[in-house]
Amino acid sequence: MTARFNLQRVLLTVLLLFVAAIVLLPFFWMISVSLKPATEPFSIPAKLWPDAPTFANYITAFRPEFRTYFVNSMIVSGATVAITVTFGTLAAYCFTRFQLNVLSLILGLVVLAQMFPHAAIIIPIYKMMKNAGLLNTRLSLIIAYVTVTLPVAIWMMHGFLAKLPITLEEAAAVDGAGPLRTFFDIIVPLSRPGIVATSVYVLIVTWQEFLFALSFTSTKEMRTLPVGMNDFIGQYGIRYGELMASSVMVSLPIVLVFFILQRQFVAGLTAGAVKG
Amino acid sequence: MIKTDKWMIWAFVGPTVLLLAVMMYYPMIGTLIESFYSTSFINPKPEFVGFSLYNKIFSSGNFGIVVRNSLAWTIGVVFLQNLIGFGVALLLNQRLPGQGIMRALILLPWILPGVVAAILWRFMYDPQLGIINSFLIGTGLSNTGIAWLAQESTAMIAVIIAAVWKGFPFSTLVFLAALQNVDREQIEAATVDGASALRRLFDVVLPAMRKVIVVNVILTTILTFNYFDMIWILTRGGPRDATHIFPTKIYQVGFGQFRFGEAATYGVLSVLMLSVLVAFYFIAQGSGRNKRAKA
Questions:
Q1: CB atoms < 10 A from the CB of B97, how many?
Q2: Which of B91, B120, B264 shows the shortest C-beta gap to A15?
Q3: Which domain does A186 fall in, by range?
Q4: What is the ipTM of this complex?
């Protein structure tokens, strides 16, 4: 019995190692190639680690346009996170606390909107942006990103706020606090874990958004990192070293944020999904 | 119930209502209207053409390919992503050495920006320099390497594998959280009754997770059906349309050829097809529940 149990454990551990290899090998390969000197050729079978690792690819890849894309991505993502999470928290609060038919209808429309393919609505939005003179601006991306991330943000905040006991607000009301003060002094501080989780999710989505950025921006000054990376494929040809170095630099900020806030993020994300 | 303050409610919900109306519902209706008008780069003035764009698309032969590809892509990715995601969740739910670290690292592919993931896979699939072909040649499984993305027979499988790699950690995350909510006592009772691990899985764990699985399958179906980045970077819909799905086709027709009317028509058709897919799940789920209730 114990022998069989141990064998089973060994087999499962081997399986876990195999999964780990599948998940992590591409990352390892990405970092390995990013450190490979341009002079060192690709060989068959592939060498797993360069003979003389160097940061040269990073230095070449960190060219002025890359820096511009980086700044654009930070501005667009930062603004989107701030606006989406604010709007989302305000709306989700109403959906969880006030029972009005019109609010249920709006919540239904919010959920339905998640099904709209971005590719299907992008042309009218493109024309609106064009008429408003907003094409090829960061503002056009921020507006689009807030719109497409808002439904999920409301959904996540809804899952979180629904679990906050209403008794605290009732106590505050008895103490004579108005609804606005109750919201800002009691609900917002208590919602911090939910706000953090939602912010990380919105950041992950906007940091990588590609379709709107590709369609709305036309000059290097306005492009974000994903579109910039797409341009690099053409420009760099098969200079994979530089391509991988910029890939690492694009991914690093989001991976760092994720690992710092992982606990709260996972708890917040799964709370809504599991409750379903 | 706390006091309802109408003014506050509208101030709080207002921005959301405004954005959804102007940026989601108005464009959706706009797309529908656009699909009845013909506009092109040469002739930018809209001209009402009725259903002729629909007729044009239905009779072009492209449409059948896009529908078939969208189905293969969506079902392939959703099925594999959730199956693998569930298997890995079961694995991470055991007390195994190193599973703490793996729970943290498993999400890496999902956080990785889609464009970066796509570039990475494009590189790994490279016939000369890619690590996949290097492995195949090194182990003697292939003599020359396979041009995964350049031939019609392998391109779809290749893009599906890349998308599953990127997407399955999300399913694992959701299923892992749900597994921890399954009633321990029920599992232990089944163990005492002599049920094997497989029986426990099918009789206790899966029924308890039914709702989570259905919600996650619907969610991943919507996300996958609308997923643009991976295919666009890996193949641009090629070779010879072998991987064109609705989002890539809409982008190509709209922003590549500036045939906005036709792109909008594809957009309307894509919404219809996605609705059919999602409705199908709801019906399947409903009939499954009825059967269980009767048994």
A1: 11
A2: B91
A3: 61-275
A4: 0.89
